[in-house]
Design a protein that fits this description.
The protein is α+β, with helices and mostly antiparallel strands. The protein contains nine helices and five strands. β2 and β3 form a beta hairpin.
Amino acid sequence: MKLYFATGACSQASRISLHEAGLAADFERVDLKTKITEHGSDYRAINPKGYVPMLVLDDGNAINESIAVLDYIADREPKLRPGGPLGRTRLIEMLTYLSTEVHAAFKPLFHDASEAEQAKAREAIALRLGFLENQLVDLYLFGTRFTVADAYLFVMLRWAKGFEVPLSSRLLSYFDRILERDSVRQALTEEALAVTEEAMA
Ligand SMILES: N[C@@H](CCC(=O)N[C@@H](CS)C(=O)NCC(=O)O)C(=O)O
């Protein structure tokens, strides 16, 4: 398998999840500005959508869209999704919220938005994270079991910290808890990102 990724991007959730699942993969970095990969390939020729993540399976099938990639990984290692008869449905419900509501709300902060648009984006993110906080009654989004949805939320909390979106103490403790996981520390190290709370401040 090969994961096309960009440093610190949403693709990091797929990398963390691959590590959690114990699935071996190669990783190829994409420069999202030039759309050239670290091996000099034209990424648009590989993925015409031009964005990450994209997971290429050993048989050549390619999966993109975070929801699909994360669902695929959870299918390979079902301990990474909630249990019960509605487990997969609850996972898709959560991943869809994370992608279409939370991730989408960050877009103005990644682009050349005005100060006013950026302030509005911060408010929208804080509001959406507030809904998730209410779900955090235990260690993770689905109780005591870490799922691929937690990997995705972790990445966006990392962005939120970087963009100075105010986070509640419950979300901060959740973030710190996930930061302690071996899969997360491995992913951050591989992407040459800070792994300690102090270093990230
Ligand atoms: N719908 C896609 C969006 C992925 C996405 O926004 N990826 C960002 C990085 S977090 C990206 O590659 N942006 C570059 C671009 O859109 O050209 C998904 O959910 O996977």
